[in-house]
């Protein structure tokens, strides 16, 4: 269920549009973007489900409550932080998406801003559209705060948490479950991969993809930039989330929410702002890895915050209070008690940010020099010239390489 993270949304749209033009427009955009984005909700929610205490469900069922009532009043409230954060993240992600919606010929704020910047050279209209987009983002952020509520969700009683047992479904339910998940897999993974293989086999411009050195250069550039960007983002997100959860106040809440507002600004606008700043005030940094990593940090900090928050809110603060009573410093308590307990969430945050940085296109395209090529840029350049077969090796390489962190994330981070 996490494999769709390996395929960039613009690659999925390219494969679907090469299959049928009926996916253009509103419903096609909604469908393909949903297939590409649902793992952003699946990962944090599944992580919480695996750590829930089944004693709450057993108590509810022992009182004669129905399974539906038990889920709604005993299980769902514990999932609200992860669900709310996922809704916020996916909504903001879809608001600022550019590559996918442009391929599907669906007009959004980001495509309109791009047209005003690049085609009409109308900066004032583009700035106005960006302001409206940020206003919509503010409404979404406040809606997520209302949905989350103020309840605490960690286990405060004595004893250890009792995990859920694996249950065997009946044959009919197994068939329904298998059919449901198979259809999701086919639509989100099967169709894009099959179409990529099709273009690789029947295409006529495969030779234009370049030699092995170009593949290796694109691979190494993507790995280095994405790794450094993900590391910086997670390191900065940790103290923000920790302060917002453990020292809740209006100040910490707003500091925690400010990056989400920045996430509503299209990557195109942030990239152009950094281009202007580096040219006029830091010319030596123009088109360097440093500027690219800063852009990644600004764009994907909310993604790291979402996953880290879901893990930290499930951790009782009692262990930290015990450390304080023993005279330990806050840094020592965080390093020895808090961090090891939320390490799966930290790994999940790093993997999520890393995967999305591997697929980042707009900011990378504007901030890199001509001699720096990543996998996403290579795919974009070839598809822009209608060289689908030449773009396919880079796209397949991006999919396969992104699958390694997804596998490790599924195997180790959410045990």
Concise account of the structure shown:
Belongs to the binding-protein-dependent transport system permease family. Pfam families: BPD_transp_1 (PF00528). 75% of the residues lie in helices and 0% in strands.
How is the secondary structure organized here?
Elements lengths: L8 H11 L6 H12 L1 H11 L5 H8 L4 H30 L2 H5 L5 H11 L3 H26 L22 H32 L9 H35 L3 H14 L3 H15 L7 H24 L5 H8 L4 H12 L1 H17 L2 H6 L7 H10 L3 H26 L2
Question: What does the overall shape look like?
Answer: globular
Report the order of strands and helices: HHHHHHHHHHHHHHHHHHH
Helix content: over 70%
* Total DSSP helices: 19
Q: According to CATH, what is the topology?
A: MetI-like fold
| Number of separate structural domains | 1
* Overall CATH class: Mainly Alpha
Structural class comes to: mainly alpha
CATH architecture: Orthogonal Bundle
Radius of gyration, whole Å = 23 Å
Cα-to-Cα separation, first versus last residue? 15 Å
Give the total of beta strands: 0
Strand content range: under 5%
Membrane topology: Multi-pass membrane protein
Protein name: Iron(III)-transport system permease protein hFbpB
Keywords: Cell inner membrane, Cell membrane, Membrane, Transmembrane, Transmembrane helix, Transport
Pfam families: BPD_transp_1 (PF00528)
Structure description:
This protein has 415 residues and is an all-alpha fold. It has one domain (3-413): MetI-like (MetI-like fold, Orthogonal Bundle), CATH 1.10.3720.10. Helix content is 75%, strand content 0%. The chain has helices at 9-19, 26-37, 39-49, 55-62, 67-96, 99-103, 109-119, 123-148, 171-202, 212-246, 250-263, 267-281, 289-312, 318-325, 330-341, 343-359, 362-367, 375-384, 388-413. Helix 3 runs parallel beside helix 13, helix 9 runs antiparallel to helix 19 and helix 10 (212-246) packs antiparallel against helix 11. The protein is globular. The model has no long low-confidence stretch (mean pLDDT 78).
């Amino acid at each position: 269920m996490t494999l769709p993270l390996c395929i960039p949304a613009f690659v999925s749209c390219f494969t679907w549009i090469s299959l049928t033009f009926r996916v253009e427009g509103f419903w096609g955009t909604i469908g393909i973007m949903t297939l590409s984005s649902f793992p952003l909700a699946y990962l944090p929610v599944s992580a919480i489900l695996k750590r829930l205490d089944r004693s709450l469900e057993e108590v509810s069922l022992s009182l004669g409550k129905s399974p539906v009532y038990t889920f709604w009043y005993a299980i769902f409230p514990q999932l609200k932080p992860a669900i709310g954060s996922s809704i916020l993240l996916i909504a903001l992600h879809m608001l600022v998406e550019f590559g996918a919606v442009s391929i599907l010929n669906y007009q959004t704020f980001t495509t309109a801003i791009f047209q005003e910047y690049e085609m009409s050279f109308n900066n004032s209209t583009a700035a106005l559209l960006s302001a409206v987009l940020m206003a919509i983002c503010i409404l979404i952020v406040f809606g997520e705060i209302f949905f989350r509520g103020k309840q605490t969700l960690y286990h405060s009683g004595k004893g250890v948490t009792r995990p859920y047992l694996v249950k065997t479904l009946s044959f009919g339910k197994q068939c329904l479950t298998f059919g449901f998940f198979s259809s999701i897999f086919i639509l989100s993974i099967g169709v894009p991969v099959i179409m990529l293989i099709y273009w690789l086999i029947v295409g006529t411009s495969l030779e234009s993809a370049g030699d092995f050195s170009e593949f290796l250069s694109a691979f190494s550039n993507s790995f280095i930039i994405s790794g450094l960007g993900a590391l910086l983002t997670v390191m900065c997100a940790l103290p923000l989330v920790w302060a917002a959860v453990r020292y809740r106040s209006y100040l910490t809440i707003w500091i925690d929410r400010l990056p989400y507002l920045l996430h509503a600004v299209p990557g195109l606008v942030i990239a152009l702002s950094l281009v202007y700043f580096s040219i006029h005030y830091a010319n030596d940094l123009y088109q360097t890895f440093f500027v690219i990593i800063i852009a990644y940090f600004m764009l994907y900090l909310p993604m790291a915050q979402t996953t880290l928050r879901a893990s930290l809110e499930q951790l009782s603060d009692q262990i930290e209070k015990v450390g304080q009573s023993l005279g330990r410093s806050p840094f020592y308590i965080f390093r020895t008690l808090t961090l090891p307990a939320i390490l799966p969430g930290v790994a999940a945050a790093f993997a999520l940010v890393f995967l999305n940085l591997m697929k980042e296109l707009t900011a990378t395209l504007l901030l890199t020099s001509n001699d720096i090529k990543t996998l996403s840029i290579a795919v974009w350049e070839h598809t822009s010239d209608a060289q689908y077969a030449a773009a396919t090796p880079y796209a397949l390489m991006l999919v396969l390489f992104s699958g390694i962190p997804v596998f490790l994330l599924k195997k180790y981070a959410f045990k």
